[in-house]
Automatic annotation (TrEMBL):
This is Attractin/MKLN-like beta-propeller domain-containing protein. InterPro entries: Beta-prop_ATRN-MKLN-like, Kelch-typ_b-propeller. The chain crosses the membrane at residues 408-429. Keywords: Kelch repeat, Membrane, Repeat, Transmembrane, Transmembrane helix.
């Protein structure tokens, strides 16, 4: 019997098992050349191999995670095109509700999360579908909403055209973003207002909601538009009637000024005429209605879109179907002076039935109608970076552009960290080798004779 070969094979199998390798037990190796080719790596080589495998696994995991995130973003429900919906801002989330499309009215309910990365060039917008929460609200268009509550975490909904549904029990609702449930507004006292559409709701500093004007939905009314001011106290849950306005109107905008506690009403249409754009202002823009308005931190009101071009051909007809020439105008509420932007191209830009929401310096113009015969509805959200006066720029992402200096600092820091890790690892190996009898080598094989 070969006293050398047998124990050497046993030692070889032990060595392979420690490395988690599997060899066929039926293989018959008969020379020492095979074993010399399987010499153990040195500590430095083993450390390098471990680092390479670690980096490979890290890159693989990050790549898979990125692919999954992109797939999830692409699977987000893209809301269908619409106009005359509502948009309410709560905690940098824009909650969209209802509206009208080619298929008719809808009760779609979803929100756009500004806290997530928004980049229109890299994927779809981060919409979150809440349709299962709005099943009890009839399909509608032309309603109005506003946020209220101590934390401004609830939505107040009023009116709108719900088709055959004209019940007062379906006139006003509330939605809390924590409870995620729509509820009927419970009235303790006061007269419930008539249902209207194309009006605006405003919440003041005391959580009272003001509703002015709007177009009556009930066709039996003797006139088309209301000039009534209805006030709802969200704390006492009662309705009161405030001072009526001078002219019934629809399609205006209402903006609350927190510092002066005033409400600025701009534009509108009623009694077969346009309402004054505003009183006692300098350089006012052309009359309009069905436009939008947002209030900036420096106390400017930005008006976007609207219809109302006046035709001069005889007989003189006031058009309510043609967009205004200048989509973007700005009112300085401190000086009451208007600033006019450069007239926009009408391509892709909604002029009516859209909503505008301001988050920090970004204005989100959502959905609405485009002045076009082949595509009357808009399924896009335009993002504008707001500048001073009447300056603005369309952007496709809400993230700040990368800072080249920060990128250089990051690269330098990564290189220094890598070099530091290598040096520490090398010193650690040298120290370890002092206490290891056979550093980086295979221990000698001791041959035992058979008894």
């Amino acid at each position: 019997m070969n006293n050398y070969f047998k124990p050497f094979r046993l030692e070889h199998y032990r060595f392979l098992d420690e490395r988690k390798q599997v060899w066929s037990s039926g293989t018959n190796h008969t020379n020492d050349t095979f074993f010399s080719s399987l010499a153990l790596p040195t500590e430095e080589q083993e450390c390098t191999i471990r680092i390479i495998f670690f980096l490979f696994n890290l890159i693989l995991k990050l790549t898979i995670k990125k692919v999954i995130v992109e797939i999830n973003c692409q699977q987000n429900d893209i809301p269908m095109e619409r106009n005359f919906h509502t948009a309410t801002l709560i905690d940098e989330k824009i909650f969209f509700f209802g509206g009208k499309s080619k298929e008719g009215s809808t009760n779609d309910f979803f929100y756009l999360d500004k806290l997530k990365k928004i980049d229109k060039k890299k994927g779809t917008l981060p919409f979150v579908n809440l349709n299962d929460k709005s099943l009890n609200i009839p399909k509608h268009y032309g309603a109005t909403t506003t946020s209220f509550g101590e934390l401004k975490d609830s939505i107040f909904f009023f009116g709108g055209d719900m088709g055959k549904s004209i019940s007062s029990s379906e006139l006003a609702f509330s939605f809390n973003i924590t409870q995620l449930e729509w509820k009927n507004i419970t009235i303790s006292q006061g007269m419930i207002p008539d249902r209207r559409r194309h009006l605006s709701a405003i919440t003041d500093n005391n959580d009272k909601i003001y509703l002015f004007g709007g177009e009556f939905v009930d066709a039996t009314k003797p006139f088309d538009n209301s000039n009534e001011m209805n006030v709802f106290d969200t704390i006492l849950n009662n309705w009161t009637i405030g001072k009526n306005g001078p002219l019934g109107r629809k399609g205006y905008t209402a903006t609350f000024l927190p510092r002066t506690k005033e409400i600025i009403y701009i534009g509108g249409y009623g009694e077969n005429a346009f309402a004054n754009i505003t009183n006692t202002t300098t350089n006012p823009p052309e009359p309009r209605y069905l436009h939008t308005a947002v209030f900036t931190n420096d106390e400017r009101i930005i008006i976007f879109g609207g219809v109302g071009t006046i035709e001069t051909k005889l007989p003189i007809v006031i058009s309510t179907e043609i967009p205004v020439l200048n989509y973007y105008v700005v009112l300085n509420t401190n000086t009451l002076e208007w600033y006019h932007g450069v007239p926009n191209s009408l391509d892709r830009v909604p002029y009516v039935g859209h909503t505008a929401t301001l988050i920090n310096d970004f204005m989100f113009v959502a959905f609405g109608s485009i002045y076009s015969t082949d595509k009357p509805f808009n399924n896009d959200i335009l993002i504008y970076k707001i500048g001073d006066y009447a300056n603005f720029t369309e952007v496709f992402t809400t993230e700040d552009p990368p800072d080249p200096s920060k990128k250089i600092i990051f690269i330098v820091g990564a290189v220094i960290s890598a070099l530091f890790s290598i040096i520490i690892g090398f010193i650690g190996i040298k120290i370890r080798n002092k206490f290891v009898k056979y550093p980086g080598e295979r221990p000698p094989v001791f041959i035992m004779s058979e008894p």
